[in-house]
Amino acid sequence: MAVLGAGFAMGYLNRPDVWYAALNKAAFNPPNWVFAPAWSMIYLLIAIAGWRVWERALRISRRIWLTQLALNFAWSPIFFSLHRPLTALAVILALLSAIVIFQVTTWKADKVSALLFAPYACWVAFASLLNVEIVRLN
């Protein structure tokens, strides 16, 4: 549950503010209330996948899992607190790459963990598109 707790903390400490509200956003940008339930489920899946790769002693998967988590936790402060959407875009694209690398690397040894990252990959791909649009429109 540490992953879920840390995710909540990151969201709480780096909330959308007046700066974010004033940004031009994509027409398909969901309302703010959508993000908390989506991330709650995703953090639960991330935690389960992490537990599985630790239990199975999948060393390379562990390193990639830690990398994606660090990138995940870096995005919110960079975007919401530092107001650096272009830097955040680089971080979220690296995060998306780490998620996919985790899935590919883990697939043979633990298909369940790789599949647990599928909703995460989809959500981060969508969030990347939202980030691209904020950079483009502002």
Attribute tags:
elongated; 138 residues; 80% helix
What does this 3D model show about the protein?
The protein has helices at residues 2-13, 18-22, 35-55, 59-81, 85-107, 111-116, 118-137. The mean pLDDT is 91. The radius of gyration is 15 Å and the shape is elongated. The termini are far apart. By secondary structure, the chain is mainly alpha-helical.
Record the SSE blueprint.
Layout: H1 2-13, H2 18-22, H3 35-55, H4 59-81, H5 85-107, H6 111-116, H7 118-137
Helix pairs in contact: 1-3, 3-4, 4-5, 5-7
Rg, nearest Å: 15 Å
In helices, the fraction of residues equals over 70%
Tell me the number of helical segments per DSSP (H or I, 4 or more residues long): 7
In one word, what is the shape? elongated
The arrangement of helices and strands along the chain is HHHHHHH
Going by helix content, strand content and strand pairing, the class is mainly alpha
Number of strands: 0
Which spans have pLDDT < 50 for at least 5 consecutive residues? none
Profile the largest sheet: none
Please state roughly what percent of the residues sit in beta strands, choosing from under 5%, 5-15%, 15-25%, 25-35%, 35-45% or over 45%. Answer: under 5%
The rounded distance between the terminal residues' Cα atoms is 37 Å
- Overall mean pLDDT stands at 91
